[in-house]
Design brief:
Elements (H helix, E strand, L loop, with lengths): L18 H33 L10 H31 L5 H35 L1 H39 L13
Helix pairs in contact: 1-2, 1-3, 2-3, 3-4
Length: about 180
């Protein structure tokens, strides 16, 4: 297979594009990802904002209030990290630095996902703590943290390893004693 010009050493992608075209495509893809995450962050933030104005809020204990404030602040930080790429793009528009914008925006998005993971976990901890008790809240918050970490970090890492192994096999051929599909003969 021809090498992927967008990623040195990668195979299977026949795209031929200039660095500017690649940067534009990558930024467009990043913006699509941000549209999905930003909606969720906005809903979470709105939910958390309204909690302080509910009749039951004054009954929260100190731990629940701290959890609330931390989750609220984390959701604000996640929203800021997810909107920063648009601000950076707007500020640097037409200055010929799109690949720099993509690199910085990608890093901000990665940080935003980490902060969002913590905000979601804290929100679930608070809600379940209030609904069923502290132990349930801790378990649910911890489970949320683990699920987000598994889906957002471990799964992509695993897929990356599988793809790298497949590409290594494509370059060197299947291991001895296997058929063309890499399965034992």
């Amino acid at each position: 297979m021809p090498a992927d010009p967008t990623r040195p050493g990668r195979t299977g992608d026949p795209r031929t594009e200039t660095p500017v075209q690649r940067a534009n495509r990558n930024f467009g893809e990043l913006l699509q990802e941000l549209r999905v995450t930003q909606t969720g962050v906005q809903i979470l933030f709105a939910f958390l904002l309204t909690l302080a104005f509910t009749p039951r809020f004054p009954d929260l204990d100190r731990v629940q209030r701290v959890t609330y404030v931390v989750a609220l602040c984390l959701s604000v930080l996640a929203a800021a990290l997810f909107t920063a790429p648009a601000a950076i793009h707007r500020y640097l528009f037409h200055q010929g630095v799109k690949s720099d914008i993509v690199r910085v925006s990608s890093r901000l998005t990665e940080l935003g996902l980490g902060v969002l993971c913590l905000a979601l976990s804290g929100s679930v901890l608070l809600a379940v703590d209030v609904a069923v008790g502290r132990t349930g809240g801790l378990v649910a918050g911890g489970a949320t943290l683990l699920v987000c970490a598994a889906l957002w970090v471990v799964l992509p890492w695993h897929v990356q390893r599988v793809v790298a192994a497949r590409e290594a096999t494509d370059r060197t051929g299947p291991p001895a004693g296997t058929d063309d599909g890499g399965e034992p003969s």
